[in-house]
Structures are given as structure tokens and as C-alpha cells.
Amino acid sequence: MRVHVADHPLITHKLTVLRDKTTPSPTFRALAEELMTLLAYEATRNVRTEVVTIQTPVSETQGLAISTPRPLVVPILRAGLGMLEGMVKLVPTAEVGFLGMVRNEETLQPETYAERLPDDLSNRQCFVLDPMLATGGSLIAAIDFLFARGAVDVTAVCLIAAPEGLAAVEKAMEGRGDVTIVLGALDERLNEHGYIVPGLGDAGDRLYGLV
Ligand code: PRP
Ligand code: URA
């Protein structure tokens, strides 16, 4: 498994505002989207392309175009929805599938409540979006789901991760398909409630309000 932790002052600046508990939902939503766009640049570094021939106004030349089948972007509902626009802005030809997961706050185990994905993901490059990688349970379940449908190449983009969760994903993915994790920041630890410290609190609630 490859891990890339962003190291850019603009990303750190935006994450700092995102973490601030006084940042209101509209600003939080705008920042989550902007951060995703910045991280998409790194996350798509290995997006599959093919050589195409085009005519410029001056001559014929060869360039690259994103290959088919097109990349599949999978936001994990609810909080991953806050990153979707930031990704499709940069890769407008991507297809989008959905996985709905909620973590049981007693057991910290993820439960899948919705799924809208192609049945066959063989030969598809998949990009999973979820702002928080805490215990890693949700991301492991999401990647397992995609592998079970035939995907072999999954890149997950998370705004903030805990070292414990990242280690759990790494262990679960040993000997599995091709997995890359792109992070905005790797934080200190998880607290006793499974929240990332310092983190930003509950990403879904901060994006969309309490449920
Ligand atoms: C959050 C977050 C991840 C998950 C991370 O979602 O968006 O999906 O928790 O925790 P884990 O790494 O310990 O599994 P949550 O379950 O709060 O649902 P929501 O997006 O609907 O708010
Ligand atoms: N889910 C969140 O939204 N935040 C955390 O810190 C952990 C899980």
C-alpha cells in the first residue's frame, strides 16, 4: 500500500480553518471541496491514460487522454459527499458510484446502508472519498466492497487520518490489490471515543448538521 501525506502550505492553511470549531457549515463545505481539488492532483497522478492523436490549429500532434473504462469515484455517504464536487471538477468525465456507511458509535464498527455501484468493477480504477480515516473500519469495508466487485486499483482520499486507522488499513490490505491512500494530514492519535485528535470533530455533522 502506498501512502502520500500532503505537504503544502495552502493545504495546511485550509485544513487549519476546517479544524477550527468556530468555522460555520457553509465555509466548512467550501473548504472540504477545495481541499479535495488540491488532493485530487496527487490522487490522480497514476490515472490511466491512452495516447491520442489530435490536430492543433498548426499541426497534428499526439497527447494523452483519460482511458476507458472511465475512473469511478465513490464518495462514502454522508461526509464523503462533501468532497465529491472537488473531485469531479478536476475529473469531469469520471463516473460516480455511492456507498452509504455509518459507524456504530458504540462498537465503532461500520454498517453499510446503501450501495449504488456497477456490478462489475474489473479493470476499473476507483477513487474512494471520505474526509475521516479514524479506526479505518469504514475505509477497509469500502475497499473490500470494491475488491469483491473486481476492482484491483483503489485510491482513497481522506482529509485527516489517525495513525491507528492508517496502520489498520495497511494490515488489512497486505497482499491484496493495488491500494494508495492520499491524506491531507496525518494526526496524532484516536481518543477513547474513536475520534481523531486533534481532528475536526464529526465531519458529517459539520458539513450537514446533526442527525
Ligand atoms: C465518519 C467518516 C468515516 C468514518 C470514519 O462517518 O466520514 O466514514 O466516520 O470512522 P472509522 O475510520 O472509524 O470507520 P460517520 O460514520 O460519522 O457517518 P456520516 O458520514 O454519515 O457522518
Ligand atoms: N468520524 C468523524 O467524523 N470524525 C472523527 O474524528 C472520527 C470519525
TrEMBL record:
UniProt keyword Mitochondrion present: no
Entry's transmembrane regions: none
Cofactor(s) needed for function: Mg(2+)
Catalytic activity: UMP + diphosphate = 5-phospho-alpha-D-ribose 1-diphosphate + uracil
One Gene Ontology MF term: GTP binding
Pfam families according to UniProt: UPRTase
Pathway: Pyrimidine metabolism; UMP biosynthesis via salvage pathway; UMP from uracil: step 1/1
Entry-linked InterPro entries: PRTase-like, PRTase_dom, Upp_B, UPRT, UPRTase/APRTase
Residues annotated for uracil binding in this entry: I196, G201, D202, A203
GO cellular component, one term: cytoplasm
Keywords annotated in UniProt: Allosteric enzyme, Glycosyltransferase, GTP-binding, Magnesium, Nucleotide-binding, Transferase
EC number(s) from the headed UniProt entry: 2.4.2.9
Residues reported in the UniProt entry to bind 5-phospho-alpha-D-ribose 1-diphosphate: R78, R103, D130, P131, M132, L133, A134, T135, G136, G137, S138, D202
Cofactor comment text: Binds 1 Mg(2+) ion per subunit. The magnesium is bound as Mg-PRPP.
Residue ranges of domain Phosphoribosyltransferase in the record: 5-209
Gene Ontology terms describing biological process: UMP salvage; uracil salvage
EC category name: transferase
UniProt key word Translocase: no
Activity regulation behaviour: Allosterically activated by GTP.
Protein role: Catalyzes the conversion of uracil and 5-phospho-alpha-D-ribose 1-diphosphate (PRPP) to UMP and diphosphate.
Family the entry assigns: Belongs to the UPRTase family.
Name of this protein: Uracil phosphoribosyltransferase
